[in-house]
Design goal:
The protein has 2 helices and 9 strands, in the order E-E-E-E-E-E-E-H-E-E-H. By secondary structure, the chain is an alpha+beta fold. A hairpin with a 2-residue loop joins strand 3 and strand 4.
Length: about 160
């Protein structure tokens, strides 16, 4: 994962427009940052911006057990679309996630053609106790779009 690429603040519905991008990161000689091509995170582009991680907020509307003894998949709905969240083992053990919670999730975006986008979550926070969380989030995404993602008009 290339942490020099920003985690884009997005609405769930915007992820359907993200396109897979060919690998553009130069190979590293550092043992700490080297990884095999099988474990390297793929990059995507949206609004002409290269990214690997998405920052989303919304309501957990469904939970799915992956297998016996496994849990950790939820469907997130923010009113613009749906995203499947796949929680890391740390997040699965850290909190009691439940349908109906309003959460913030940040993680690796995994494009899936013809299917609901997937985010492999590495950070999730329950924001349910905060009364104005949804309205503020919408303003944050709009501000990020206007400041960073929208093309500037030419002079």
């Amino acid at each position: 994962m290339d942490y020099s690429l920003a985690a884009l603040k997005l609405f769930c519905g915007q992820l359907k427009d993200a396109a897979e991008s060919p690998a553009t990161t130069p190979p590293s000689t550092s043992a700490a940052s080297s990884c095999s091509s099988a474990t390297a995170a793929a990059s995507s582009t949206l609004f002409g911006i290269l990214f690997q991680r998405a920052w989303l907020q919304g309501v957990l509307v469904a939970a799915a057990d992956v297998g016996i003894g496994e849990r950790g998949r939820f469907v997130l709905d923010d009113g613009t679309g749906l995203v499947v969240l796949s929680l890391s083992k740390e997040n699965q053990q850290h909190d009691d996630w439940a349908v109906g919670m309003y959460v913030m999730a940040v993680g690796q975006f995994v494009p899936r053609a013809g299917d609901i986008p997937l985010v492999k979550v590495h950070k999730m926070v329950n924001l349910s106790p905060h009364p104005d969380r949804e309205a503020i989030w919408h303003l944050e995404v709009i501000e990020a779009y206007k400041l960073f993602y929208q093309s500037l008009p030419e002079d």
